[in-house]
Design goal:
The chain is mostly helical and 229 residues long. The chain has nine helices and no strands. The chain has one domain: Rhopdopsin 7-helix transmembrane proteins, CATH 1.20.1070. The chain is globular, with a radius of gyration of 19 Å.
Amino acid sequence: MAKTKTIENLFNYLAFFSDLLPCLLFFIFLKKSTSIKPLWIVTIYCVYDFLTNIGLLYLDHKPSRVFLYSSFTFFEYAFFVWILFLFIKNAVFKKFIIGSSLFFTIFIITYNLLVKVIGIDSIPIGVEAILILIFSFYYLYEQMKDTETLFVYSRYSFWIVLGMMLYLAGSFFIYIYASQLDPVQVGKYWIFTNIFSIIKNIFFAIAILLHISAKSKSEKINYKVYSLN
């Protein structure tokens, strides 16, 4: 039992501090990342996630904790959908994203006004996950159709979207049932949410490194061409 608790605590800390990994890489390579808007959004999201976790760690006031959970669901959706909106090219589907986002905004406001949330806002999280997964699958579909894309995994955007997908899909059922379970049962399965959160942040870090690597290669080629002239 003590060993299991130690493992749970380890994954709690890893999930907590893994948010700092993409942030650290972004600021180390700031000159090469500063012009890429999706990387800025990823970094701001990770900072926001980290600060929210700090708030949940130290806040004992229940209404404040509920507000943090509810507001995080909305802002996480906003960050993820903004990233996908920048990656997706099809104008018609972008209109669908805008329409869906307006629906989600109205839904989450109405839900929080009408429903007394005690802990985790499971239903809004479920709706958020379904919408983001639909948008993400369309991004992958678009990439598969793109004749210019030889290896989709060589693009930094692929790793960001994959990180979001695995995180939302992997923790989907835990979040959905979290409001129906007592805290002890939730704690028993929360390790899986932490694992997918760690994976998400590792994939975000890979995306930043891929962009840096691609930019460095491009600069070397340009330098060689310039030197020949």
